[in-house]
Write a structure and sequence with these properties.
heterodimer; A: about 500 residues; mainly alpha; two-stranded antiparallel sheet; 2 strands; B: about 525 residues; 19 helices; about 5% strand; globular
Chain lengths: ~500, ~525
């Protein structure tokens, strides 16, 4: 295998968003170093500007249909990649905006914060384009690297350090698993590129290798049983970082999962469908049941996130184009609802310095805006019409019933009711209970903007989702051929059983 | 024109709630005026829809259809038939009345009206949905505002924290059947109601998804599905049971009723009215819309289940209402009991009884709306719903007492009110098929008389406790208008029921022909319907 690294200008075009963002984040860092006294708010807006410019670039790519692959298919720009890059960048822009007030409480390193967020975002953009196992490993570690620092950013705070350490140790462990899995797969197939693996025969080594890779990616998306870092890390990390962590890396890792299973492992679909059915059922049920007992809003959202990933995996379990469409759309609804909910948490914790659900008592009297926004976001997460989450859930369920996954469907539907309980408990605290301290709360303009974007997205995707559904369906056109499930016996299973 | 009116009925309350968002809470009069204006628009528009519905033509009228997502086969498809039109009208009446009943709410007035308008608009949406997706969409949307309405503006059952039995255990909220493990707080009632109804809804959703998957055309459109989708064997039975029990939990059929009286008791007056008046009918309506339209053969085979369960509903609700001491529990259980009549009318699959059932839904909405409105007024004046401690209020509230008697009479089904027509039709229509149930139903009427008159005597006659001497009557027009509106409608349609009857019958007859296989299931002109 030789690498040909000569690039033409048209090739560079495919990389334009990444190159632009790289330059931009260097600029942000340079400005921070050069002008020591610069108002960090300006730095934040500078970063947001860069992210938005990149976003516009990508939307233009999507509109004009720019596609292609680079570096022997290691880097690919197609509908799915563009979709996930846009997802990552929207969340980055919103997280940056939501951070502005929070960062004021940092004593040091304000400028680097924005740099690190953008660097993680850059890593995740590459993840969305990863088309072979080597680039999967490199990009995954690249993006996680920024997060290791970000999670432990509040270095005076024990919880944050603990969170950082937990995240780091488990993250490195996952990286080890990933590397080992990749080596096994390479040993069995002799290739690292997804599309070339598709024709490989099943074997035990391949199965173990892919299960290890799945475990490493499961760690990123926080699927049970690889979720144990999530609650503590979410609770300890600075809240904007938690918000970022709760959506962007999950999206990027799902991009890899979809590609890997839909392209590289298309022939073994009956086997991995089973894997996802089990993972999905366990994640949904565990996440929702444990969430009931939570007293801290960040932990509650952490467990709700685990359950939401369970929902997303229903789409993977369907293993069809419809399934991948549904995942894309679902992530979009999750982006707005979840980031919005975290924005409210940031707003509240900026003002009352607490994340306990008990302190949300009477929020409606203290700030009707925050309470109403939180109500919308939580109900969207619960899947109540006319909000985005409902359409997302329905889309996923439609994908599941087309494959006649009844068990999964029933578990998913029952989980809606379970999840409604703990979301409504928060609603009860906000609306029904009386506040301990009735002083009104006010929200800063950038945070307000984030919340408004969240509300707009949640309502728009719920009431008029057609353009977004069409977009998701168009982005995954390349998976059209997977719709016909292979009738042959699952090769990996047979090989596992008979040797 | 009819289309516009139908859209106006649906969107006026939504629009009102959006406008309310931008009105500050310190201008309560403006808030109320906006709410009343949007509800009034909906009322007038729905009156037009109801009156303009052409019974000679029948079928679905005033249809609007917009593509919503071709990818999933969903269209925003609304229109009414002879069953939807009166129920839309009833919802609008109760919404309009409810706005005035809650005129004196001081705490977070704006939020109250926003949630009330969303609740009503969503129920109206269900009654006009011709697409399974939107039916479910509005159905689930109507459940959630109930949580907030009950939780914030509701009331606890009197002394709920101290209620214990002889051995010192906490007393349960009601003598219900399933899931009675909480105190009688409004928060508990709200949570129970929401979770119970959502659980029912997801079962129905499962049924809907099965219909979607196994129909030859991947669509949620009811008008297409009823022509092209055929289910038989186990699949049809599973779908039917999911749909029936999923939706019947809101109806509420025994033994899935236990959320309902608790919810009624905790809810503020206007919410109780909408809840008992129209929200419960979502169940019957959705069963008719989904099961009767799409699964006619299975409906014929399995509807006897409803005929069995309705006996328990009628008797159980009636007896509990007789022994209940809380005004709202009495009315709540009476509603549960009366919903059994609707199920009886539906189960008989006879056009007289089904027409009666539909008219009964409308009639019950008005009667129970009046009762809840007045129970709410008495509670606001005396701050108690405990019947034994009340009495003699007629001296202070002559108008209300008079209206209460009329409401009781309407609820019992006195000739001259629309309830009479409905009851007599159910009884006559169901006699041939279910004579035993009809006997029970007649007993139920006697029972209704007993508990309502007992409550009336307890509230308005006898000795008045001096602590309630300050209680005053409804004197302002805003307080009397909603009562007069509901009484007026009840009596008007009781005396002039022919248009109403024709409207309902025009839909019921062809529907029952399909179910009883008088007419072929597949009509010839399906080509135009297919997408």
């Amino acid at each position: 295998m030789t690498f040909d690294l000569t690039l033409s200008s048209s090739d560079l075009l495919l990389l334009a968003p990444e190159i632009f963002l790289t330059i931009w984040l260097c600029v942000v860092l340079a400005v921070d170093f050069t002008y020591k006294q610069i108002d960090h708010e300006k730095l934040a807006y500078l970063s947001v500007g860069g992210v938005i410019a990149t976003l516009i670039n990508l939307i233009w790519f999507d509109y004009t249909g720019v596609e292609g692959a680079l570096f022997k298919d290691m880097f690919v720009l197609d509908g799915v990649a563009i979709f996930f890059k846009i997802l990552v960048l929207i969340s980055t822009a919103l997280v940056l905006l939501a951070s502005i007030d929070y960062v004021k409480s940092f004593k040091f390193f304000r400028g680097e914060y924005y740099f690190l967020v953008m660097m993680s975002a850059l890593g995740m953009m590459f993840m969305a384009s990863a088309q072979d196992l080597l680039s999967v490993f490199v990009t995954l570690e690249f993006s996680t690297f920024g997060f290791y620092v970000l999670v432990a950013y509040l270095r005076e705070d024990q919880k944050s350090s603990e969170a950082g350490l937990k995240f780091f140790i488990l993250g490195v462990f996952a990286a080890g698993l990933l590397a080992y899995g990749i080596s096994l797969v390479y040993g069995e197939t002799g290739t690292l590129v997804f599309s070339e693996m598709a024709s490989a025969p099943g074997s035990i080594g391949l199965a173990i290798g892919f299960i290890m890779i799945f475990a490493a990616l499961g760690f990123k998306i926080g699927a049970v049983p690889f979720h144990s870092w999530i609650p503590d890390t979410y609770q300890g990390a600075p809240t904007p970082v938690t918000a970022f962590l709760s959506i962007a890396p999950k999206g990027a890792a799902l991009a890899i999962l979809i590609r890997m299973f839909y392209v590289a492992l298309a022939t073994f679909k009956p086997t991995w469908v089973l894997l996802f059915v089990v993972a999905s059922i366990v994640s949904m049920t565990y996440g929702n049941i444990v969430a009931i007992a939570q007293k801290n809003i960040k932990r509650l959202l952490a467990y709700s996130g685990i359950a939401q990933i369970g929902n997303v995996m229903i789409g993977l379990a369907a293993g069809t184009k419809r399934g991948s469409d549904a995942i894309l759309f679902y992530l979009l609804t999750y982006l707005f609802a979840n980031l919005g909910a975290f924005a409210v948490v940031i707003g509240v914790s900026n003002l009352i310095k607490s994340d306990e659900i008990e302190d949300y008592n009477g929020l409606n009297r203290r700030s009707p805006f925050l309470a109403a926004a939180m109500l919308l976001f939580l109900l969207s997460l619960a899947g109540v019409p006319p909000l985005a989450g409902f359409i997302g859930k329905l889309y996923i369920f439609v994908a599941a019933i087309e494959q006649e996954l009844y068990t999964l469907l029933i578990v998913g539907l029952i989980n809606i009711v379970i999840s409604m309980y703990y979301y409504l408990v928060v609603v009860k605290k906000m609306y029904i209970n009386e506040p301990h301290d009735p002083t009104p709360l006010s929200v800063s303009p950038p945070l307000k903007a984030v919340i408004f974007v969240g509300i707009a997205g949640t309502l728009l995707l719920g009431i008029y989702p057609k353009p977004f559904i069409d977009w998701a369906a168009a982005a995954t056109l390349m998976f059209s051929n997977i719709a016909a499930p292979t009738a042959s016996a699952p090769a990996v299973l047979t090989s596992l059983a008979g040797g | 024109m009819g289309q516009v009116a139908l859209l106006a009925t649906l969107f006026a309350p939504f629009l009102g709630s959006i406008v309310l968002l931008f009105i500050p809470n310190r201008k309560p009069l403006l808030v109320r005026a906006v709410a009343a204006a949007s509800a009034g628009t909906a009322l007038l528009a729905s009156l037009y829809v109801f009156m303009a519905y052409d019974p000679d033509q029948g079928g679905f009228q005033f249809i609007t259809k917009w593509a919503w997502s071709e990818e999933l086969g969903i269209g925003f498809h609304i229109g009414v038939d002879g069953i939807g039109a009166p129920l839309v009208f009833a919802s609008a009446i109760l919404l309009f009345a409810g706005i005035f009943i809650s005129w004196h709410i001081k705490d977070r007035t704006k939020e109250f009206y926003i949630f009330l308008l969303i609740l009503a608009a969503a129920t109206i949406g269900v009654f006009m949905s011709l697409d399974l997706f939107f039916l479910y969409f509005f159905y689930e949307m109507s459940v959630l505002p109930m949580y907030v309405l009950l939780g914030i503006w509701g009331s606890h059952t009197k002394g709920y924290l101290s209620m214990t039995d002889e051995e010192g255990r906490k007393l349960r909220d009601s003598v219900g059947f399933i899931l009675n493990f909480g105190a009688n707080s409004k928060e508990y009632a709200a949570m129970k109601l929401t979770l119970f109804l959502s659980a029912g809804a997801v079962f129905a959703l499962m049924g809907i998804l099965l219909i979607y998957h196994f129909s030859p055309v991947q669509t949620f459109d009811i008008l297409v599905l009823r022509e092209v989708a055929h289910f038989d064997g186990t699949l049809a039975i599973i779908i039917w049971l999911l749909v029936f029990f999923g939706f019947a939990s809101i109806a509420p059929i025994w033994p899935l009723h236990s959320w309902s009286p608790v919810g009624h008791a905790a809810a503020p007056a206007a919410t109780s009215m909408l809840h008992a008046g129209v929200l419960m009918k979502l169940g019957h309506f959705s069963i008719i819309r989904v099961a009767y339209e799409i699964l006619p053969e299975t409906t014929r085979e399995l509807m006897p289940i409803a005929a069995v369960l309705c006996v328990f509903s009628i008797l159980y609700g009636g007896f509990v209402a007789y022994f209940a001491k809380d005004t709202k529990y009495v009315i709540g259980y009476s509603s549960s009991s009366h919903m059994g009549y609707v199920f009886l009318g539906m189960a008989a699959l006879d056009y007289i009884s089904l027409t009666g059932a539909v008219i009964y839904m409308f009639a019950h909405a008005l009667a129970t709306g009046m009762l809840f409105a007045m129970a709410g007024w008495v509670y606001d004046q005396t701050h108690t719903r405990d019947i034994p401690s009340l009495g003699g209020l007629v001296k202070n509230m002559p108008f209300l007492a008079g209206a209460f008697i009329i409401a009781c009479m309407a609820s019992v089904g006195m000739p001259g009110t629309v309830n009479f027509i409905a009851e007599i039709m159910i009884i006559v229509g169901a006699w041939e098929k279910y004579p035993f149930q009809v006997v029970v139903a007649v007993l139920g009427i006697v029972l209704t008389m007993a508990y309502l008159f007992k409550m009336m005597r307890g509230l308005f006659y006898g000795q008045m406790s001096p602590e309630y001497a300050h209680a005053r009557d409804t004197s302002q027009w805003v307080d009397r208008l909603p009562l007069l509106l509901m009484i007026g409608c009840s009596i008007f349609f009781g005396i002039f029921p022919m248009h109403f009857y024709n409207v309902v019958r025009s839909t019921v007859v062809p529907m029952l022909d399909r179910i009883n296989q008088v007419a072929p299931l597949v009509t010839q002109n399906t080509t135009g319907l297919l997408p």
